[in-house]
Structures are given as structure tokens and as C-alpha cells.
Amino acid sequence: MPACFPNAALLLLLFGAPAVAQPFTTSGDLSGTPRFTVTADTADEAREVPISPNRAVIFLFNTPVQAGGAIVEERERFRQVSLSEDGLMLTLLPSGELKPSRRLTLTVRFADGAPPTSLDFTLVVSPRAEVQVEVYRQLRPCDSYRQQSEEAEARVLQCQTQLARERAERDAPGGLIGLLVLNHMDENGIRSRRIIEDISLRPGEAFTVDRAVSYRAMGGEEDARVTRLAVELTLWNRGAEPWTPTHAQLVGQGGRWDLEVWPPRPIAPGESLRVLVEVEVPGEPASGPYLLKLWDESTARTLTLSGVMFP
């Protein structure tokens, strides 16, 4: 237990012996003191704390609550609502006016402004109450937010590029002429590379790969070069159920991209299918290696290939 949390024996001297606490499911703290561990992703989860009339309960935080940042519903029914000077300890002393099973909301707002910025607790009036509750707030590192923001920007750019391409393709011819008209290919043409010897399947996969070829084509305007990457696979379904790859993602040092998958057709058990995936990315990405993941709509079955290289 962190050093800032007071000893339970001191609480007994100050507030008298509490009633036996009811079973309380928390994060697994073996000291017997209820403990909530919260993150920005779990801030909205329900948190109930039993309280009793005329019996104090103390909330201990590992990060400071802002001054005036503890707001309790029906404040007039509490003899005391006080926050310590360092903002790490909140004391509530309900009055005798609270009736059993009454439910009140306690909201605390933290001083640093980092997510989660606030938490809600449901105070449940009960003859069997807690005397001390620990709240451990986990802050996400700045690098996590930066990565999430960069990935979101990359997805937006990818969607914008794809939308512009689809609009242009409606009025363009097919074949190589269409690739040239749409600036999907320059004078270097389309380069290919057999990668069946480079790739490896994740252990336990229900698939085998008979053929694997990667492709690269440069295009775009002179001041906005883009690269189209594609992978051609012949996949055998060794499982007992049909499988339809509908989503794919390419992951490497240069980024993470969602790929178009063709055809949208199931692979029956014991049969094979030629599957192609493609993505357009800005600039000229590295040759690899990359991780290629394919999955179905249910996300229940995935295929993961490592060591994917491009020419």
C-alpha cells in the first residue's frame, strides 16, 4: 500500500469500530481495503461504495483532487465533506437522516486536468459500510496519445485519398491506360517480388500459403508522390469452417495502414483462393519487413504473416 495512505488502526481510534464490511469486489488488493484502479478507458464504469449514517468513510487518492472538486449529492445530509490540503484524502461523514438503500452520487475532479479528469461514485446507504476506500488513478503516457493521434490522422488521410481515387476512377479507362491516366503508375511500371520464402505464419494458423507475391507501383504528382503496395496470396483453408477475409492491415516501422481486400468470397474448408490486398500510401515507404494481418467480419479468425517484403 502506498505510504500516503493512513493506517487503518488510526481510523478506528478517530471514528470508532465500524460494522463488518460487506463483500466488495475490487482490483484484488489483499489488505482488505477496497481499491478502485481506474484509467481513461474505464472512467465511466460503475463504482459503488456502501456508507452508513453517522459513520465516516475516507477516500484515499494517489493523485490530488482539486480544491472544491468533491461534489456530493444532497450535501446537506452530510455532517462533513472535507478534502485534505494535499487533495489526497476526502472524508465523508453522513448524518443520521439518510435512509437505508438511498443512493447518492459523489463526483471528484482531479487537479492535474489529465484524463480521466473526474470520477463518479455511487454512495449506497447500508448498515454494513466501508471505512476506507483507495482510488488508484493510472495516467496514460503522452506517447500513447501522440501515437493515437498520428494513427487517426493517417486513417483520415487514407480515407481522403481513397475517396478522391474512387471519384477519379469513375471517368477513367481500364487497364494500363487507366493506371497511367490516374497517375497510379509512372515510367518505372509495376515491380514485383516473390516473397514465399520471406514470410512466416504465426504458429497454430489454420491456413497455408502456396503463393505469395508483392507489388509496388509509384505514381502521383511530382510534388505529391504516392506508392501503391499490393500482395497476392494463394491461401488454403485448413480449418473446419468457411472463412471470408474482409479486412486487412499492414504494419511496419513506417506506419499502420488498412488495405482493400479482394475478392469478398469465402474460402471453403480444404480449398484455396487467390486473395489480393492493396493500399495507397504517401511517399515511398521502406521495403519492409512488414506484418500483414487478415481477418473476417466476426474477427474470430485471423491470418497473420510476418516478414512481408516489397520490391
Q: Any descriptors?
A:
311 residues, mainly beta, five-stranded mixed β-sheet, elongated
Strand content: 35-45%
Largest sheet: 9 strands, antiparallel
* SSE class: mainly beta
Q: Multimeric state of these chains?
A: single chain
Average predicted confidence as pLDDT: 82
Topology as H/E string?
HEEEEEEEEEHHEEEEEEEEE
- Distance between the amino and carboxyl termini: 55 Å
User: Ranges with pLDDT <50 over ≥5 residues?
Assistant: 1-31
Describe this structure in words.
The chain is mainly β. The chain has helices spanning 8-15, 142-169, 175-181, and strands at residues 35-38, 48-51, 57-61, 65-72, 78-83, 89-94, 103-110, 118-125, 132-137, 190-194, 200-201, 207-221, 224-237, 247-252, 255-262, 272-282, 290-295, 302-308. It is elongated, with a radius of gyration of 30 Å. The model is unreliable at 1-31 (pLDDT under 50).
Characterize this entry briefly.
The chain is mainly β and 311 residues long. It contains 3 helices and 18 strands. The strands form 3 sheets. It has a 9-stranded antiparallel sheet, with helices on one face. A 5-stranded mixed sheet has the order 1-9-3-6-5, with no helix packed on it. The chain has a 4-stranded mixed sheet with strand order 2-8-7-4, with no helix packed on it.
Q: How would you summarize the topology of this molecule?
A:
Layout: H1 8-15, E1 35-38, E2 48-51, E3 57-61, E4 65-72, E5 78-83, E6 89-94, E7 103-110, E8 118-125, E9 132-137, H2 142-169, H3 175-181, E10 190-194, E11 200-201, E12 207-221, E13 224-237, E14 247-252, E15 255-262, E16 272-282, E17 290-295, E18 302-308
Parallel strand pairs: 1-9, 2-8, 3-9
Antiparallel strand pairs: 3-6, 4-7, 5-6, 7-8, 10-12, 11-18, 12-13, 13-16, 14-15, 14-17, 15-16, 17-18
